[in-house]
Amino acid sequence: MAGSKKKVLALLLASTLTTQLAACGTVFYPERKGQISGRIDPVVAIANGVGLLFFIVPGVVAFAVDFATGAIYLPGGRRAELAPNATPDSLSEQLYASTGQRIDWQQDAVQVETLGSVEQVQQRLLVAY
């Protein structure tokens, strides 16, 4: 009887550690992977926090994984889509409508590049900062 209790407890502990190492946000919302920032989802944060209460290391790992993958952030960020025949003038008008700021395309700090994929955009933004 004591041996079966130990096996059940070991199985429960192993499954709990495995789910915490996988990170709650990554398990609950795999479609959120790849987000860079946003508002933190309280459900995911609380679930990861429960991991901190019981097991410090897996809880910290769960937070680290969720932040690294972006799964802890709520969805809802607007995605920019650009028409293939966009011009600096049409871009300026769209940016002004969204932000209220005018862009001076002649400034030295302005760089215009054509990028073919979201990954290239992310890489360029990481290099810029």
Task: Summarize, please.
59% of the residues lie in helices and 0% in strands. With 129 residues, it is an all-alpha fold.
Largest sheet: none
The amount of helix comes to: 55-70%
What shape does the CA trace take?
Answer: elongated
Distance between the termini: 60 Å
String of helices and strands: HHHHHH
Q: Average the pLDDT over all residues and give the rounded result.
A: 75
Query: What structural class is derived from the secondary structure elements?
Result: mainly alpha
Radius of gyration (Å):
22 Å
Total count of domains:
2
Q: What does the oligomeric state look like here?
A: single chain
Classify the beta-strand content into a percent band. under 5%
Number of helices: 6
Number of strands: 0
Unreliable runs, pLDDT <50, ≥5 residues? none
Transmembrane segments: 48-74
Keywords: Membrane, Signal, Transmembrane, Transmembrane helix
Signal peptide: 1-22
Topology of helices and strands:
Blueprint: H1 2-22, H2 24-28, H3 42-54, H4 56-69, H5 88-99, H6 118-128
Helix pairs in contact: 1-4, 3-4
Notable characteristics:
mainly alpha, about 130 residues, transmembrane
Give a structural overview:
- This protein has two domains: 68 residues, no CATH class; 41 residues, no CATH class.
- The protein is elongated.
- The chain contains six helices and no strands.
- It is mainly α.
